[in-house]
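Reopening: Glycosyltransferase involved in cell wall biogenesis still failing for me.
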Amino acid sequence: MRFCLLIMAKSPVPGQVKTRLCPPLSAGEAADVAAASLLDTISAALDTSGAVPVVALAGVVQREDVRDALAECVVVPQRGASFAERLVHAHADITRFRMPVLQIGMDTPQVTPSLLESCAEFGEAALGLAEDGGWWALGLRDPLRAAALRDVPMSRADTGALTLEALHGMEVRTLPVLSDVDTMADARAVALQVPGSRFAAALAQAAAVAR
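Support: Ran it again with your exact input. Result attached.
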């Protein structure tokens, strides 16, 4: 089955990403960790059978390694004032592919091609809740139905529940619960799940410098 694998991403610019990791990390170290997370996510997407990787990007990419990875994907700019609006627009921007969409972020570097391929199997919709009460994955047979998210408040402990509520009227498959990376505790827990990843290496190097 062919599907769009939509990654919502922010350019890893110091001071603009992963600020909740500071302290103990510096802004530059947090950006390195964010870049590693994005690179691991793109790698998993590129290796996922049936996936057409699309990155909805906010900001200007300054790192060569991230630019190289993005060159292997379709890249669309994020549009909208709020994150909810940017989600709605990103889904609308990929309707031209005429495929169902599985949308994730850059904060779950532990995803694997097999997990993503499995999560793309759904009827009308799918939702993967996050351990902090948000969500990490959203599947939609019709990307335009992401318009239901426009008024959902994001980055709250009840965002996952409110998103599920907004999808009423659709048959929603429940995906596995994952932890996304917001805090140092999250980052350490996720790094333990993927010890050989870029993310784990970047976190270990940053943590060593921060001591």
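Helices lie at 27-46, 64-70, 83-93, 113-119, 159-166, 184-193, 198-210. If you still see a failure, please send the error message rather than a screenshot.
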